Amino acid sequence: MATAKKTEAGGNAFDAFATINPDSFKEGYEKFAETATAFADFNKNAMEAVMTAASAYSKGIEKLTAENTDFIKSSYEHAVSVGKSVASAKSPQEAFDIQSEFTRESVEKNLGQANKVSDLWVDTTKKTMAPLTERYSELVEKIQSYRP
């Protein structure tokens, strides 16, 4: 015949289980089920946030790529046009003036493009991080709610 093992508190294992009644078991199970459901919902919403962030990031990259492609195309076309103008200049001074104007315009356009790209990156970053930040804030709130 088997004997009950003694617990650290001096009782036996049967005494520990004897204190569990159907009501306390049901209450514990309901609390566990509620926590598991909340955890599953949180994870589902977190995955949705990740997908939203990934979508925002890909749309931002698409915008940046289109912007840079358009800029490079227009810059190339402008450079070809200036090259033709320089080639058809009537004097070295006229060619130098055309080239100087082209250089000045190029610097201004490149600085403008850098600002535009910077703004697009900032916008993309904000849109990408917004859903993730929201989920993180909710996680912190949940953790704080469990603290005594």
Can you put this structure into words, describing what you see?
The protein is an all-alpha fold. It has one domain. It is built from 3 helices and no strands. The model has no long low-confidence stretch (mean pLDDT 86).
Order of helical and strand elements: HHH
Gyration radius, rounded: 34 Å
Whole-number tally of structural domains: 1
Task: Please state the structural category.
Answer: mainly alpha
Helix content: over 70%
Mean pLDDT: 86
Cα(first) to Cα(last) distance is 45 Å
Low-confidence stretches: none
What's the quaternary structure here? single chain
> What fraction strand?
under 5%
Overall 3D shape: rod-shaped
Note the total helix count: 3
Quickly describe the structure.
The protein has about 150 residues and is mostly helical. The protein is about 85% helix and about 0% strand.
Give the secondary structure arrangement, pairings included.
Layout: H1 13-18, H2 22-87, H3 92-146
Helix pairs in contact: 2-3
